[in-house]
Amino acid sequence: MGTTTPPRTLAEALRARGDESLAGLLRARPDLLNPVPNDITQLATRAGTRASVVRALEHLDRFALQTAEALAVAPDPAPYATLLSLLTGDGLDDGEQRDDVGAAVTAALPGALATLREQALVWGEDERLRLVRTARELLAPSPQHPSPTGLGPTVAEATAGMSPGRLQEILVATGLPATHDPVSAVAALSALFTDRTRMAELLDTAPVEALSVLDRLVWGPPYGEVTPNPTPPVKWLRDRGLLLPVSTRTVVLPREAALHLRAGRAHRVPEPVPPVVAAAAERDPQAVDRAAAGQAFTALSTVEELLKLWNGGGPAILRAGGLSVRELKRVAAALEVTEPIAAFWVELAYAAGLLASDGESDERYAPTPAYDEWLDLPAQDRWTHLATAWLPATRVPGLVGGQDAKGRALSALGPELDRSAAPDVRRRVLSLFAELPPGTAPDPETLLRRLRWERPLRGSAPSAEGTDLRSRLALWTLNEAELLGITGRGALSSQTRALLNEGEEAAAALLAPLLPEPLDHVLLQADLTAVAPGPLERPLAETLSVLADVESKGGATVYRFTPGSVRRALDAGQAAADLHAFLAAHSRTPVPQPLSYLIDDVARRHGHLRIGAASAYVRCDDEAVLNEILADRRSTGLRLRRLAPTVLASQADPGSLLEALREMGYAPAAESAEGDVLITRAGARRTPPRTPPTPVPEGPPTPDETLLGAAVRAIRAGDTAATVVRKEPAEGATGTHASGSLPRTTSAETLATVQAAAMTGTAVWIGYVNAEGAASQRVIAPVRVEGGFVTAYDHTADEVRTFALHRITGVAELAEDGT
Question: How far are the Cα atoms of 42, 118, 129 from residue 500, in angstroms, in the given order?
Fold first, then answer.
């Protein structure tokens, strides 16, 4: 500990630490830094608060937690040997061979104890180990909160309030000398239960059924219910104090008796060594990289296809926020995936800043301007953008379709999907992948066991969603990593290892050679289809997606030309000659005659009918066509009326009229108020510039080394100011101060003292009230006193500051041994 005198409090133990050790505490428990404690005493107080201790316990691994649990049921303070015995047993296990476990515990215990000490959960020397009081209260047994060890209260705790007469009866039944002193009676009973020989002799006289009762209680929970007329075995145990009453119907097995039955062990199975993550399969690393690259390219195509669906304006946002179930089903159908996978792609685009709300009165989702910038990037850079957005994201798509704590449905893009533990689990899963040899796929079950060992308090308790959230997050991570191309065939790819260790540029460099080169051609076929044998260059793909419909996707994409798709291209401003030229320039095969005829036929009829706003009208120079429309029974719902030989009017709006006539087989074109044909461009709606959603942090962020160093210096300086020895005021002096309070001196005395200190170069102790009215104590070394201000080196803040003389409440010289 660095001191000859054992510390009496946690504050003294922290004060004896070195700066590096204090920085380690603040690094492990960053919540202690908000705000920076004034001194060591305040740091110790904050480290003992319930919220902070709970947070620290949640970050312990299983064996460190088992060590803390053993200390919670050990005497306070406990020698190291007692703690070791609680974890290994007393070696009298009726022939059980526990040498391997005992050796592992013995080897691991110093490390676990060092972790607890570093996090200020345990303090004191090895002969007087103390668990902080709040942690003992959290881990100690009680009827409402049984101990994690399954042990009950001690004999002294269980017999508190028991009548002396009842204690006498127990002593007599166990063959102990009677005493009228309750303290002596409890001590005698405790000594019996902790004496291996005498306890064994007592249990040898117990009925077999009584031993069966003890077997059910020994590993917890130690509480049991009894009837007003207990059975003989229970009565035998109760008469001898092996079952002590907690209430009229509840009894408990005292801790000392349970430890005897457990051979001194606090835990049935100590777990000093983390479970090994087993390999499920070993694959060729190059095959893994190729599989991951293929899936990465699929991920890019899927995200692009999703945002194309909403290119002209996406679905409306629910009143409570998020995407409706119906819209999610539409996305799933369009992407040809299941709804949970569709939710993942939607959330990934949102996390990457490619998708957001447009902010209009009828709020809808739409691509952001960042989407256009993303499209211009090389494929490998687009993938690293998605991967680096996925890693720190706190939104959990796997929750979509479930319910929150209040029974409300959780929707994609909704406000209740953030889980602050997600990034930590995601990165830990990938780091466990990275610890395996390249090409090795881990066994998911052993992976989950390892995660539960590393965070038992956070990984074993069921959450509001059902099963423990940490395990579910890990399973979702495995699935999402495969979808995104982070892993390939269940193993971590080389490009992901580079992303985690070296950064985006290294990952992109490894991924680029594995991605297919975009093609500048297609293969036109006589059945009005075009086959793209690979990914197409962006201009070609965009034009072809307007001119034809995607019929099937995969290694090769099949596009089909239809009258509707050709009309769509004509609506976008293309002429028939442009379409012929485009196909001839980008086809490796001759343009089939059926396709040329289709384009010419649709172009000849395109715009023959004109739709405008009357509510709507139909204009056509051919009266026969209008007669045909009026005679068609399908036009009845449009309520058409002839205004002139070449004009029909309708009460439907122009858009509805346009779609209705197209469904009837015509090729009308919309026109403006001036009579010009309106050209509809494919997809141009964008949101205003948006920033990606900010992940919800899990507690305070880990401080950097600069902040840690400054915080340690400030705490040390504040502690110096709080504990420095001040000279007692001279007899008859007007300025007086109580120990630890602000000094009080007159203005003249203050000025004289700081001037003298500036001349002699000594430090003084001052009380100071700043402009906000906050009072503080400081140790300063005055350098200059002029104009009503004191310029001094502030030991508390470790910097030179200027203090207003009128705000100094008083000043006191330091004792010689305190400077």
Answer: 38, 28, 40
